[in-house]
Each structure stands twice: as structure tokens, then as C-alpha cells.
UniProtKB/TrEMBL annotation:
A GO-annotated cellular component: membrane
Protein name: Wax synthase domain-containing protein
Annotated family: Belongs to the wax synthase family.
Compartments reported by the entry: Membrane
InterPro entries for this protein: Wax_synthase, Wax_synthase_dom
Keyword Transferase: yes
GO function terms (MF aspect): O-acyltransferase activity
Main localization (coarse): membrane
Length: 408
């Protein structure tokens, strides 16, 4: 047997194996081993043991990520991808392979300050801080706020208000497609359909140009995906602060009105969430010698992250639509930088806002078509579609007399 035939047989056997669910022991090791490593990180003299456990943890995570875990809810499948990437390839890896324990910035004391010093809480906080990139040294300092009465209570209320606001935006974005096409494009069961034909059908029914329907759904998907992560973030923040485990300063605002961005650099570098910032800069460092290349590589890393994250949902690797969007954002940043170097003027103002909206939406069209066609956009609604009584929008529609009772 030739080497080519052996490789083909190995690849085929591996693909067949990954079409099966990961064994339960591997699935739970995917979560348990990173926590064990985070415990050992804070104990001196465990470097050799950590080096031995890390390949097992990484292997269990890769197996779980790419196996066909159809029994797992879609939301949990996304979390599987986050654990795989952030807990195994993010900044945490630097400490797993390091000799000394991590250093922490002094944080404003929460209500249960003694619990913060326990050995059980430290590894939990160590893993939770990877996405927020706060507290670890080196890292971002804690934001300061002027003292105010009932500081903790007000912070919890603010985060809960933000959670419900983003949840309502997400709800509206997913509800429209679910209401118009509950069995195909808007189905929570990963059905999908011919998105282009659906847009033509809607354009005829609404009496508008087809391009305006595409623009509507592109803007809708961009808004709802930008609101899903902040909604989860603010809910976790409210619960963490209310339980007395974290101070309000450890959960700063996540996004800063991205719809006000007047340049692509401002959108992705300041106003949009920065959860991937440390991770991308760490791996893009070898390309930092040439700024335009460095910027493009950062966006390509973000593309890789999202493709891996969505793979357990669709079981497909569709590179082209994501390459157009993420490479496009990197090129847009490079174009704005070249414009500034040539003219001395930064992109901004009303024209900058129009440029940013138009460029982002145009580059997002192939990605939007893919995510509606393969059913991922409809699946985002998940339990809100399966149990209509959980949906605030369903109750609003019922109270306005536009639909039936959510519990009917």
C-alpha cells in the first residue's frame, strides 16, 4: 500500500470517527481538565505535571469540538468552541507552560472578598478572565469610577437593564424571520433554504426592489449577532456582582455604540467588543513588522475563530463568505490608514459613517446569505422559538393583538 493510500485511509477513518458523538468521558474531560490545569497553575512546582496534562486536555477539546455532538444544544456547542480556543490557545497557555504562578492586579473588593482568596475560586476566575482580559498582569487595568451611593446595587440594575435591552434587540432580529418562514429560513431546527429565492419572493410581496430586501436582512443579521454576545455578558455581570463574587469595576461596558462608528478602524478597534483582542495580538505578533499585514492577519485570526466556533452547528467549513467579510474588514482598515497618510485627514463625520455602513454591509452579504441558507441564523433563536412563553416579543405581539397567546 502506498503512502498516499495510507493517508487517505487514515483521513477517511478519522472523518468517520468524527461523525460520531464524542465519548462522554472525553466530552466532560474537555471541561474538567482545563479547570484542573487552572488549579495547578497557582501551585508552584507543578510545571512538569501541567506539561503532561495539557496535551490530554487539548486532545479532548479538539475531539469534542469536531465530533458530531448532535445531542448537545446549539448554545452549548458554541461554548464548546470557546473553551477549545480560549482555554487551550489563548493567554491561559502562557501560564500553563510558565514556571511561576500568574500575578493579579489589585481589584476593588467585592462583597465576599474572602471567597476571592480561596483555592477553588482562583482557577475559576483565572479561566473567566481570559475573555474579559482584565486583572491579569500584564493586562488592562481596572476602570475607575467615582464613588456613588449603592454602588453595587446600581451596577446590578444597569447590567440587567443592558441585558434586557440587548435581548430585546436580539429577539426582534430573530423573530422577523421566524414569523415569516418558521419552517425554513427562520426555523430553529437548522433547516435553512434558498435565501436568494426567498428574498425575491419577499420583494414581490412587499413591492420593493430585491436589493433593499437583501440590505434589510444583512443589517438585521449584523445587528442581532452584535447584540447576542453583549446580552450574555451583561447577564453574567449582573449575576456575578449580585452574588458578591466580583466588583462592578471588573465588568466594564462591553461595547460603545458601534452604530455611531465613523470609520472601520473606530468600529473594530474601539466601539465593537474587544474580547478577541489579546488572543489575536498574541498570535499576530510575528507579523507586526509591517502594520498593514498585521491588521489583516488579526482579522484572519478572527475569521478562523468564528469558523471553528460555528462548525459544531453546521458541520461544514465554508471559507469563502467569511474570507470576503473578514479580509474585507482588514483591507478597509488598511485603506483608511493609507488615506490618512496620503491626505493627512482621518476618515470621519457623516461621510465616514456612510462609508463604514456601506463597506461593512457589502462585504457581509455573502456571509449573511450563507448563514440564512444553512439554517444557522434561524437556529440562533433556539429555545425562544421552541417555548414561545420565554419570548418577550411573543408576549408583546400577543398584547398588541397581532398574534396568539404564547402558551397556546
Amino acid at each position: 500500500m502506498s503512502l498516499q493510500q495510507e493517508l487517505y485511509g487514515l483521513t477517511r477513518g478519522l472523518s468517520e470517527k468524527l461523525e460520531e458523538p464524542a465519548p462522554r468521558i472525553v466530552f466532560w474531560a474537555h471541561f474538567a481538565l482545563p479547570f484542573l490545569l487552572a488549579c495547578l497553575v497557582h501551585i508552584r512546582g507543578t510545571q512538569t505535571l501541567r506539561w503532561a496534562i495539557y496535551p490530554l486536555s487539548l486532545g479532548a477539546s479538539i475531539w469534542t469540538q469536531f465530533a458530531n455532538n448532535a445531542w448537545v444544544e446549539p448554545v452549548l456547542r458554541i461554548h464548546i468552541g470557546q473553551v477549545f480556543i480560549f482555554w487551550h490557545t489563548g493567554p491561559v497557555t502562557r501560564y500553563i507552560l510558565a514556571r511561576d504562578p500568574p500575578s493579579y492586579r489589585p481589584a476593588p473588593p467585592p462583597l465576599l472578598v474572602r471567597l476571592r482568596d480561596t483555592r477553588l475560586f482562583k482557577p475559576f476566575n483565572f479561566l473567566a478572565s481570559q475573555m474579559r482580559h482584565l486583572g491579569l498582569v500584564p493586562g488592562h487595568p481596572f476602570p475607575t469610577r467615582p464613588p456613588r451611593r449603592f454602588h453595587t446595587v446600581r451596577a446590578v440594575i444597569e447590567h440587567l437593564s443592558s441585558f434586557f435591552s440587548y435581548l430585546l434587540i436580539f429577539e426582534l432580529g430573530t423573530y422577523i424571520a421566524f414569523r415569516l418562514a418558521p419552517d425554513t429560513i427562520g426555523s430553529p431546527n437548522l433547516v435553512g433554504g434558498d435565501f436568494a429565492a426567498w428574498c425575491r419572493h419577499l420583494a414581490i410581496g412587499w413591492g420593493v426592489p430585491v436589493w433593499s430586501v437583501w440590505a434589510f436582512w444583512t443589517a438585521t443579521l449584523l445587528v442581532l449577532t452584535s447584540s447576542s454576545t453583549p446580552s450574555v455578558y451583561h447577564l453574567l455581570a449582573a449575576v456575578s456582582i449580585a452574588l458578591g463574587l466580583y466588583s462592578p469595576e471588573e465588568w466594564p461596558p462591553m461595547i460603545k455604540s458601534p452604530w455611531k462608528s465613523t470609520s472601520i478602524n473606530e468600529l473594530w478597534g474601539k466601539r465593537h467588543h474587544q474580547l478577541l483582542k489579546d488572543w489575536m495580538l498574541y498570535y499576530a505578533r510575528p507579523f507586526s513588522f509591517f502594520r498593514p499585514l498585521h491588521m489583516i492577519v488579526c482579522f484572519l485570526l478572527s475569521m478562523t475563530f468564528h469558523i471553528i466556533l460555528y462548525y459544531p452547528i453546521t458541520r461544514k467549513l465554508n471559507l469563502k463568505p467569511y474570507l470576503i467579510f473578514y479580509m474585507g474588514q482588514g483591507l478597509g482598515c488598511v485603506i483608511e490608514r493609507a488615506y490618512y497618510k496620503r491626505t493627512g485627514r482621518r476618515v470621519g463625520g457623516v461621510t465616514g459613517w456612510i462609508w463604514t455602513c456601506a463597506f461593512v454591509m457589502l462585504t457581509a452579504v455573502p456571509m449573511v446569505e450563507l448563514e440564512y441558507s444553512n439554517g444557522w441564523a434561524g437556529t440562533m433563536r433556539d429555545s425562544l422559538a421552541r417555548d414561545r412563553s420565554l419570548s418577550p416579543v411573543e408576549w408583546i405581539v400577543y398584547l398588541l393583538g397581532w398574534g396568539k397567546h404564547p402558551k397556546a
